[in-house]
């Protein structure tokens, strides 16, 4: 199965360098994306540009792909399901959730000179980074790319309610499935409250499992792809 892999904020396609080969070994075709504005040198890229890149990857697949979004890019995976509800086998969200219509995409940290730089690891102290050693954090931080303000402050929009029929899987690293179910029940994640086919995978990791447990993450994604392929 084609597996479109979308890294979260500040990451380019190389974030999946340890996951993609393990997926290939399991017979899948990983397609890591370098999003506009996050590794292609386009400092003026917009959220719409990133959405278009994900949709183009879906359209280029020979069969219905599984679309995987990490962290804030979980929202991109869900928007792709909205734009192409008939062309995606499953939407997988790792450590993140879709935003609501009319919300800003990822306006989480201060913007400087038209971009939102990585704020350092301090805001992520605790479960997010407990499984990352100092060398890994230094290596990852050295590759972090400031996200254009026109991406982080872009406005989320949806156009097709058929997205609610899309199989959606929440891979839960630094939080538990029970936490997400509680948030959904409380109405804190409206898009997932309306989704009709939501399932959960508990992953013993922090917020960046592609760096800390790439083989385990690949195993999880491979099993989900097999399930998606069976249901296609």
Automatic annotation (TrEMBL):
Signal peptide: none
Keywords tagged on the record: Hydrolase
One Gene Ontology molecular-function label: hydrolase activity
Highest taxon above the source species: Bacteria
Keyword match Disulfide bond: no
InterPro entries xref list: AB_hydrolase_1, AB_hydrolase_fold
Domain AB hydrolase-1: 3-219
Keyword Hydrolase: yes
This protein's name: Alpha/beta hydrolase
Organism this protein belongs to: Solicola gregarius
Organism lineage string: Bacteria, Bacillati, Actinomycetota, Actinomycetes, Propionibacteriales
